[in-house]
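Human:
I keep going back and forth on a fold encoding question. Comparing notes only helps if you start from a blank page. Show me how you would write down a chain together with its backbone fold. Write it directly below this note and I will take it from there.

Assistant:
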Amino acid sequence: MLPGELLITRTRKDRIYPDFLALDAEYLELAQELIEVYRSFSGKKKSELEDLLEELEQGLHFKRVRGLRTLLDRRCTFTSRFALEPARARRSVFEAARQVKVTTQRERAAVIANVAASLEITAEELEQSLWADLESEIVLEQFEPLTADELIKKYNHSLAQTLLFKATGLTLTVTGKAPELFRAIKYFGLMYLPEDGNRIRIEGASSLLKLSERYGTALAKLLPAIIRSESWILDAEIVIRRGNLPRIYHFIMDSRDRPLLISDEPVADDQETSFDSTIEQKFYNEFISLPTAKHWEIIREPDVLFTRRGVFIPDFKFRHRELQLETYFEIVGFWTETYLKRKLAKIGSLPFTMLVAINKNLACFNVEPFGFGVDQPLILYTKKVPVGEVVRYLTALEQEAIAKQVESLTDQHIALEGDIIPLAALAQECGMTQEAVRKCVRDPEYVVFKDTVVRKELLEQLKGNLLSVEKYMEARAIIEQAGLTNADEVLAYLGYKVMWKGLDVNEAKIGFDE
C-alpha cells in the first residue's frame, strides 16, 4: 500500500480507476532506470541517492515516480557507519570547542584533530561519526533487486490497495469455492455478510467511526488473496469529495486484471494481529485441555459453508463424539451496530446452530449505549474468549439431545442378559448415547453404574465374599476376579468406605460406612 497522497486515480461517470501503469516500453524503461539507480548506489549516502532521484523526477509525473521510489525504498536496508557513537562524538567535540575560540575552518580542524587523537581515531573517522545517525547520512547497505516488470505490477497492486483503504464497502463475487480467500477474510477480522450465491459483502473502513485506519489496513491486505482466486469480481464503493459534496464512485476490478498485478505478500503468514489468530489459538489450546474435549471434537478452520443464503466462514466446528450433533463457533472481528445486527439475523436463519463471540474492544463505534436485543447465543468478552461459557453452551446442546433420546426410549424395553453388561455395548445396540441408555435402564434385577450394568445377584455374592476382608487391595482383587473393573463404585454401592493411612495403597482398609 502507498501513502494516500501518492494515490493516482481517474474518474468517468460513476466509475473510479487506479491509474495503473501499462507494461509498455515507456514505463518499463522508467522502472529499469530507477532500479539501476538503487543498485548502483550501494555503499553511498541516502542523501546522495535522493538528490539523484529528485533530478530524475524533473519533467515526469511526480506522484508516479515517488510511488515507485516508495516501493524501492522498502527493498533497501540502510545503516549508519561510524567509528564512534555519534552522540558521544558530538559531546566530545562540543566540550573541546567550549575551551577555545573557534571562528575559522582552521580552528575547527584543530579541535577535530585534537579530539580525534584523544579518542584514538582519525580526524576523518570523527568527522564521519559526528552526524552519522541523521537520516541523510545513513548508507545504503543492501538493495533487494527485482525486474522492471515486477516493479510495475507491484506499483499497480499498491495503487489498488490504497484505493481499497478508502472504500466504504465492497462486494466480492467468486466463481468456485476459493477457500483461501474466505479464510483470509476471517483471518483479518473483516466485517462480512453472505449474500446470494458466492457473493460476500464486506464493510469498508470509511464507514467506521473508530479503528478505521486499522481496519482499512486489514481490508487492503485482503487484496493478495482476492488476486490469487481463480475467478472473481470486486466492486468497491469509494466516496470522493468534490468541493463540499461527497459522491460515490465504483471501483470495479476482476480476474482479467490479474496480469497487471502481482503480490508476493503472505495472506496469513507473518501478519501479526491482536484480534484474530492469537485469540483463536489461545481458545483452542484451552479447550482441548478440558474434560469436555473427551465428548466434543473441536475442528479448526472447518470447510467454508455454502448455503442458499450465501457463504459462511465459521472459525470452529464442534462435533460430538457419540451424538449426531454438530455446531459452529464464530469469533467476530471488527464490528458496528448495524453490521452486527444484520449478521446475527443472517446467522439466526441458518439451518444449523452457531455460537458467536464478540470482542467489545473491536467495536468501531461507542459501544456503551448499545443493546444487542436478539435471540441468539452470544458471548461478550474483552481480552480472551471465556471457554467456560462455550462449555456451558455445548453442555446445554448435549443435554437437550440426550433428553430427546431418553424420550424416544421411554416406551422401549431394554433387554438385559448376563451378569455384567458394558453400557457402550447397550448404547451401540440401541443407537443411542451411553448417558441416554443409563437413564432408561429400569430393570429391578440390575444396578446401573457409570460404564456398566451389573446383575444384583452378582453384587450380593460379592458382598458375602467381602465380609471377612479388611485390606482394600484384597477387596479390589476379589471384585476384579468377578470380571468388574469399577471396584470403587462397587464398594460404595455395597456400603463400604475406604480408609487410608498415608499414601500407601497397600495400607488402606475397607469398612462399612456408618
In short: The radius of gyration is 36 Å. Confidence is low (pLDDT under 50) at residues 268-276. The longest helix spans residues 387-409. The longest strand covers residues 231-242.
